[in-house]
Amino acid sequence: MQTGRKLSISLMGVAVLLAACGGGDGGSGTPAADSAADAAASAPAAASAPDVASAPDAASSPQPAAFNCPTNYKRLDVAVGTVAGTPMTLVTDDNIATLTFAAPSGGIVRPLTVCLGRPDPLPAGVQADYAYEVTANGQFLNLDRRLLTFNFTTTQPVTVTPALELASVTAGGVTYAPTIAGPLFYVKPNYSVSGYLNQTGLYVVRLSQ
Questions:
Q1: Model confidence over 135-173: pLDDT tens digits?
Q2: Which of 10, 18, 87, 147 falls 20 to 30 Å from 125 in CA-CA distance?
Q3: Whole-angstrom Cα distance, residue 193 to residue 97?
Q4: How far is the C-alpha of 152 from the C-alpha of 167, rounded, in Å?
């Protein structure tokens, strides 16, 4: 009889001890929930998605400056894809200056604009009877057969053989450099003077020096 009481009391003590320690089925969470929580706590944090580079803002991207011909110059826009050897011509409104050239062997790969006209006024120090300027936004030297011709009629005294020259203005003054001579025809009072161009710039014909 005493042995039975002792066993009952011992079992009750074990039950109380388990309850106080949170053991058995009476714990604060189910085994499945505790396992999930432990797994979540021990699992490494998920890698954050890599930053996606945002597309450049077209408005804030630097844009090349627009190229424009000076006022009253003739303009020729040469389109990308113009085939090699295509001949092109620019003529001033007074019909004195004519610029001819051809698309290069590789064709036109970037947009090209060529301008031809008479500066008004002429740059300080330039002394010439005829003066016309060639400007471009690039690739000019890639063009083939760049020939500039001045056709004019004059009754002025002509004391030198007319030639096409490149006029350059510097702090030291104005220099005149000959071009590679092109065809020259003249029967007074009519003249046709030409030269092949190695660069853009101001080209002149002087009837006396």
A1: 999 889 999 999 999 999 999 999 999 999 999 999 999
A2: 147
A3: 10
A4: 19
